[in-house]
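Teaching note: in complex prediction, the entire set of molecules is handled at once rather than each chain in isolation. The prompt given to students was simply: 'Predict the structure of this complex.' The entities are:
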Amino acid sequence: MTSTFERLEDVVNDELFPEVDLWLRRGRHIGRGDAAEYAFLVDALDHLEPFYRRYGAELVHQSDGYFYLLPAGDRLGRSQLSAGEMLVGQALALLYLDPATLQHGGIMSRALIVQRLQSIVGVDALVRALNPRRRRFDERVAAETVRAKVSAALRGLVELGFVDGLSDDQYRLRPALMRFAEPVRQHSDPGAALERLIARGEVDGPELDGEGGDGGEEGDDDERGADP
Amino acid sequence: MRDPHALVAALSRDRVSLELSTLDVCFLAGLHLRADRDALASFGDEHLCDLFEQVCDMVEPGAENPRKRATHAIQRLRDQRLLARVDAAGLARAGEYTLTRLAASIVEFYLADDALTRESLTLLTKTLLGQLAEVRSAAQRARSDDDWIQQVTGPLRITVGDLVGGIERRQRGLDAAQEEVQREIANLLGADWFQAVDEAQALLDKTTDTLAELNEVLLRDTHQFVALLHEIQDLAERAAAPQGVEAAAASQRVIEHVDRIAVWGDARQRAWSEYYQYVHAYLRDVVRLDADRALSQRLRDQLGSWPEAPFTLVVARAPSIRLLRDMSPRVERPAVLRSRAERDRAPEAVPVDTGAPELEALLERALAEGARSLSTVSARVLAELRPGERFLAAGRVAALLPRVARVRSEREQAWVRVGDGLEPRLEVEEWEVEPTSPNAASAGGEA
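The expected output is the structure of the full assembly:
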């Protein structure tokens, strides 16, 4: 494919560059739904890959139809998704694969997401995964906490371009959710696949940060962990 | 146009409600179809009961007392204004019944399959254009109020209104059909994942083509409708006859309907386009990549075991750019100070001057002279003092007076000036005074 950009300077001078650059550096996944930005990245890929490599980051283009920036060195900040974002992200990826979601064009409500999480993970495990420090739970408080954590996680996933937030309670699934399915994408051993992803810097494993990098304070579990 | 709030309030006040069982709806549908097939204008009592029994046999076979149930069902439908008695015979003979407009609408909703197609839409829009052209000609010729009512306002309300309503009704039919297509695509893929791709794609393409064709017709024809309606509206507004105003309002209402039709076309096209893209991406990315649906199962297992073996995705996170403030030389602002000084004065001993003995003597003299109210007592006492001492002494007089005399006051105490021309001007709340010493008492009243 021939690019309309001859030099990096042309790419940087394009009016879409500042927005796309900021999105990528803030961890947003740019998919086919972001029509203009996605087309720009496809067009400028040959120039932008070496450009971001100089920052110690890789501009990843997945065949599912999305781009994201993967920081490899110390020059660009990096963060890990929180436990809530990981759980909700995987549930959304499952929904993305489910043909039943086609009926509504991939539009989901928060209630359906909570329901799906609850049926797969189990109420007890879900509550504990979202509140790792609390030992005793009142059922009503636990349910409220789960709903609040799921909402916070959804907000985070909207920011990162995994889903589109249509209203307070409606979300449209995006192809970038397939990132959550990467460890099981191949038929091979998921453990080995996870190790490969950890080696590539795509994933932080349990030995690095078992609770999604929460900062240590009670109530921080829905916060994304960041590396300096 | 009627106020929606008032309308809703009226419906609420009248406690409008509908309660229909499947049997009731089937009975209504049976009546509607029979009337249609046999060209019946109404049903006799016996006829209704027979038909109910037939429907009951199909819907609830083996139900007991069908005749009794028929009687109850007919009464229930009459109470809900779904069946109306149309004869005026009262008790003289069995009644004749017909379905009301409400019942006909309910049945038509379930039976009608008049979704919008290119053919039906083109037919409707052409008829509508013809009607509007006729109305415009009539508006050009109209001279009197009767002309406007019969040839412009009437056709706009009835004929044109019905045609526009017909398009809207078919739009709703197409909405339902689209929903059905979406459900069908989901079911197809749910049942036979890989084999269903072509079928799903065909369904998608068919609906997309239908929508595109409809939108093309709507875009082309709605412009013509609106142009004709504006012409009619202009003619109506310029008309000398008072009914022209009414015709202009009727045109405006039709314009609003037509706008709604155009907006519908645009919105459905956009929504379908989003749906199309999503399903297309799904067919391309999900179905073809996960032909055996094993990925879903593996992902489900991963999610189920994630709390025991958590891992997290890594994303870039560049902090926001820090914007520094403009440099400016630091300005030394003088502190707000107050000169140091000793502001508290030491208390100073002064002899107490109550003036009480002198005042008491003056008081008693005033009473003896016949003063019988606080204002007159005060006036006499204060007149003996220097102006600078009078204000202070006025209070003391009021304090001393109850000791030397009996005082009384009205519930509403009037404020009275103390001595005419006495300076400074003072006012007191009036008391009546009754001396307790015999000398004073013998002095009599106010002197």
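Point out the following to students. The interface with chain A takes residues 182-183, 185-186, 189-190, 193, 271, 274-275, 277-279, 281-282, 285-286, 290, 294-296, 298-304, 306-307, 309-319 of chain B (CB under 8 Å). The mean pLDDT of chain B is 83.
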